[in-house]
């Protein structure tokens, strides 16, 4: 029997896009014959993703899941190549399964997560289950990112636009009732719409504030070259304050009542609920943010497939 080298495994992996352990097994089963190893992987449905691996998956959906007790939650983004597949019931069902896997997972990074046993079929890893879905659906797919929250307080989720944006919001709440849950859902909608970066001011890194100050100084001097420095400093402070309000959730104007900030709205809710409610953390995923979308001519695509 031929010895299987790391170089052979690497070559087969690059040829097929299959997982490292699957490639090693395929080579062992076929006595190191590269062509037969490719056939072995194809027969197992593990090389079906190979020709699709170079295609950009920038569509897809974000899905959330919250445990029954509201103490833990997961959010995941899974990408596909086309919006058509993102709306497919089978794809959406698979993404819901991925979210459920995250909720039960102890993985801290994508590599560990993909190596886990797939909860719906213990004969597969998460990575193998993904390859299997790619084979069935016929498009490149990618589990792009996930996050899990476990809390002593409460977590509420919100999905916007059929999975285009997903939000998890964690709060400390002395009382958890329908009033509190509705308020947190309202704030999650605010996060989806206005994209704050931080919960409150003291979370903002000093280097970020310093950088913004430098930009605003140059801006103010260019616009008002004749104004004295003490006046410019007041202008810069005012502009910085306005900017930071947009970045911080509790300082933002509450979208359902412009007379209130989100912080003041939470104070009202705390009085109504009979106990203090404080937002601790939020996670906001928007499908495809930061990914390049590949523009292709549809007629050319069809012509290529016909050839």
TrEMBL record:
* UniProt-listed Gene3D superfamilies: 1.10.286.20, DNA helicase RuvA subunit, C-terminal domain, Elongation factor Ts, dimerisation domain
Question: According to its UniProt record, where is this protein mainly located?
Answer: cytoplasm
- Annotated Translation elongation factor EFTs/EF1B dimerisation domain ranges read 73-289
Key word Transferase present in the record?
no
> Which Pfam families does the UniProt entry name for this protein?
EF_TS
GO cellular component: a single term: cytoplasm
- InterPro entries of this UniProt entry? EF-Ts_dimer_sf, Transl_elong_EFTs/EF1B, Transl_elong_EFTs/EF1B_dimer, Transl_elong_Ts_CS, UBA-like_sf
Report the locations given in the UniProt record: Cytoplasm
Q: Which UniProt keywords apply?
A: Cytoplasm, Elongation factor, Protein biosynthesis
Which function does this protein serve?
Associates with the EF-Tu.GDP complex and induces the exchange of GDP to GTP. It remains bound to the aminoacyl-tRNA.EF-Tu.GTP complex up to the GTP hydrolysis stage on the ribosome.
Protein name, UniProt field: Elongation factor Ts
Species this protein is from: Lacrimispora saccharolytica (strain ATCC 35040 / DSM 2544 / NRCC 2533 / WM1) (Clostridium saccharolyticum)
Lineage runs: Bacteria, Bacillati, Bacillota, Clostridia, Lachnospirales
